[in-house]
Structures are given as C-alpha cells and as structure tokens.
Design brief:
Shape: elongated
Structural class: mainly alpha
Low-confidence stretches: none
Protein name: YtpI-like protein
Order of helices and strands: HHH
InterPro entries: YtpI (IPR025618)
Distance between the termini: 45 Å
Strand content: under 5%
Organism: Paenibacillus anseongense
Helix content: over 70%
Keywords: Membrane, Transmembrane, Transmembrane helix
Length: about 100
C-alpha cells in the first residue's frame, strides 16, 4: 500500500513538472501551431495529474462526503482536460505536418 502511495506521489510530481515545462514552452513560442501543440501537451499532463490526485483522494484517505465530492470533481476536470488536450494535440499536429 505504501509503495502504491509513493509511486502515485512521484507520478503526480512528474506530471506537475511536465505541466509547468509545457506551459513555459507554450508561452515563449512565437509560432501559433507550436504554441497550440505545447498547450495541448500541458492539458494532457494536467488532466492526468488531476486524475491521479483524485485517485489518491478517493482511495487512500478516510471516507468522507467532502473527499468523495472533491475526488469526483477532480476526475471530471481531469478527464475534460485530457480529452481537450488529445483533441487539440491531433489538430495542431496535423497543422505542423
């Protein structure tokens, strides 16, 4: 159980670092297609990070109605970011080819 918690925590930290990295890359990029591609990658990483945080909240802490609501909201936000990021990544990837 402890190993799963540590691996989820390290995965959350990795996804957070990637989100920040792609955010900086997107803001500094001059070309609009590459900016959109980096923003899409940031959305994908952020969506996965939110889903991982929700899994942590739902399964590894004491049960309470607030944690369930918070975890459900994070899952929905994470899945929306993931879907939007994948859709936008495909769009901007086709523009760059």
């Amino acid at each position: 159980m402890f190993a799963i918690q540590v691996s989820l925590f390290s995965l959350i930290c990795l996804l957070l670092a990637l989100s920040v990295f792609f955010s900086f890359r997107a803001r500094r990029e001059k070309e609009p297609a590459k900016r959109g591609l980096y923003s899409a990658r940031m959305n994908i990483c952020m969506g996965l990070m939110l889903v991982m945080i929700a899994i942590t909240q739902l399964f590894f802490f004491s049960e309470s109605s607030f944690r369930r609501i918070f975890g459900t909201v994070l899952v929905l936000l994470g899945l929306f970011n993931l879907f939007a990021g994948i859709r936008n990544h495909g769009h901007f990837d086709r523009l760059l080819r």
